Amino acid sequence: MQNFVNINDLEKHEIIGLIKRGLAFKAGTSVPTVAQHMVANLFFENSTRTNVSFQVAEQKLGWQQVRLDPDTSSTQKGESLSDTLKTLKAVGVDTVVIRHALNDWYRPLIDEQSDLMPHLVNAGDGNGQHPSQSLLDLMTIYETFGHFEGLKIRIIGDLAHSRVARSNAEVLHQLGAAVSFSGPQAWYPDDFNQFGQYTDFETDLETLDVIMLLRVQHERISSVENANFSLVDYHQTYGLTKARYELLKAQAIIMHPAPVNRGVEIDTDLVEAPKSRIFAQMTNGVYARMAILDALDLTTSNLNTINLK
Fold first, then answer.
1. pLDDT band at 210 (very low <50, low <70, confident <90, very high)
2. How sure is the predictor about 309, in pLDDT bands with cuts at 50, 70 and 90?
3. Is 49 buried (19+), middle (13-18) or exposed (0-12) by CB count in 10 A?
4. Which domains does the chain have, with CATH numbers?
5. Keyword Transferase, does the record have it (predicted)?
């Protein structure tokens, strides 16, 4: 794998291979030594979980980290992202992990097909894709159920502004899950119809296997929407309340990419409830990202030879 920028660009066997690789790391599979592999993380948007998770994954792989703050880099002088990346490659950086506000920032760089470009990992682009979050979400679901085919999964909340929703809707549909959506209809993009149906939150709630809640992204909605937003009304209409939690079947799990707005998308007492996998997702994020980074230097055949549980 040369780059990891959109999980929906991968074949099913490649996705399952990465999931099993992540689970193997979690189970204690020894980490291969990649001598002198250097990585830089460029986060042009704020991040806690994704940024730290990548750093921990890189350290567990034994990679050397090059610290570079985008706010003090030459991008502030007008240097293009392409030239910044080629500069990093020229001085010895092998892989660059990037979060950027621009959708599809990676497409023109990949199209260059230049040997001057390092491996690229997309840590989130605008409201486009969040492939490493998708992989850790898939890993969490697979860890619980052992498959995706036929699982009933509902993604609920701010669908329009969520790169997590867009990434997951497509890949879960491709993997055979029955995906449905809920949340404010004003935040429901019509193109999601190709992956599943929009429905009310409580429709067939007792039959769902996975509830995937989304953060309301106030930084991406208009000032008018923010002015009219009611935390109480949103929670009562689109949030996971205790009453709705009680309707879920015993084996169902609750997911959220975090940060969580407690009392808005989910009742604060349910964040650590038995069905919640929110913090387990964060733990899995480290191992999923180890699998992603490790795969940049492994062939598909190598992935398949790993002794998995």
1. very high
2. very low
3. middle
4. 3-129+283-298 (3.40.50.1370), 131-282 (3.40.50.1370)
5. yes
What separation, in Å, do the N-terminal and C-terminal C-alpha atoms of the chain show? 23
Question: Residues forming the annotated binding site for L-aspartate?
Answer: 77, 163, 215
Question: E strand or H helix at 123, and its extent?
Answer: strand 119-125
What value does the mean pLDDT take over residues 216-221?
A: 80
HSE-up of residue 275 (Cα within 13 Å, Cβ side) = 22
Token pair of 210 as six digits: 């996975």
Beta bridge partners of 155: 181, 212
Count CA atoms closer than 13 A to 53's CA, side-chain side. Answer: 24
**Among candidates 47, 284, 248, which has minimal Cα distance to 144?**
284
| Binding-site positions | 49-50, 77, 99, 130, 133, 163, 215, 258-259
- Binding-site residue numbers for carbamoyl phosphate are 49-50, 99, 130, 133, 258-259
Average pLDDT over residues 269-281: 97
| Cis geometry, peptide bond prior to residue 259 (ω within 30 degrees of 0) | yes
Residue 286 in this model has a pLDDT that exceeds 70: yes
In whole angstroms, what separates CA 304 from the centre of its chain?
Answer: 23
Residues 27-84: tens digit of each pLDDT: 999 876 666 899 999 999 989 999 999 999 999 999 999 988 888 777 777 889 999 9
Copy the structure tokens of residue 252: 């169902």
